[in-house]
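Bench log. Compound arrived from synthesis this morning; before running ITC I wanted a structural hypothesis for how coenzyme A sits in the protein. Inputs:
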Amino acid sequence: MELETIRFEVRDGIAWIRFHRPEKLNAMNSQVLAELEQALASCEGEESIRSVVLAGNEKAFIAGADIGPYAKADVNQALQMGTFTMNVQERLADLPRPTIAAISGFALGGGLEIALCCDFRLAAENAVLGLPEITLGIIPGGGGTQRLPRLIGLGPATEMLFLGTTIKADRALALGLVSGVYPQDQLASEAEKLAKRLAKLPPVALKACKTSMRTGLSAGLKEGLRTELAAFSMLFGTLDQKEGMAAFLEKRKAQFIGK
Ligand code: COA
């Protein structure tokens, strides 16, 4: 795929989406978002892709939305840009495959919001995370006020959102904002290790798990429980359920095929 601000590569069933706008610390403009959308569309359409890793470079995952275009925007333009961002982020959050954000350096504003749309966040020791929008006279417009408190709780999220404070990797780990912190040169291999582990698990069940969790969090407990039950029972119609349980009983390793 010919993209300018994103490198897209599929290797061993794992899709790598690498943000590549180094001169601006990967700040997200409409081109980055459009290209991210293309990459996500490729992941949606490809059965053989079992997990997806999003990464930047050593210095930045993404240092936020590109403040340049936003500085000139009026209310309508902000709504348009925000809507486009929200649609791409929803597509990422709804991706029917497990997603991992491998965060090195800055994950600020819209960058952290992209990471919050992923199922896992791993950080390098140099990671700096935050939603500094308040210091620019705005608030996060890409899910930050919603996804951050849901993930780390209202108290710490309020501190980060109201004060615009950035936090380092060790604090992010303590808050549960990231699930692991690694030396910079090990981040990619740790992300790959997790992606490979996920790639070996039954994809239909993983997708059902993701959908159930997300439905419950957005629609409430009752709806979530109904969704979970429907997905749970549906999985008994898959070959992977037969294989998983047979493998247990036969004391061997299951081989899942995604059907
Ligand atoms: N939007 C647009 N440009 C950005 C950017 C953003 N969010 N983040 C970084 N850049 C640009 C800088 O303007 C600079 O461009 P220039 O060389 O043409 O001047 C380049 O990226 C390098 O950034 P610089 O500020 O020189 O690096 P630094 O290491 O000194 O500082 C940051 C890094 C992340 C602390 C600083 O760039 C920053 O505060 N960025 C904005 C973060 C933010 O508020 N994000 C939320 C936006 S809603």
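What the model suggests: DSSP finds eleven helices and ten strands in the chain. The mean pLDDT is 96.
ITC booked for Thursday regardless.
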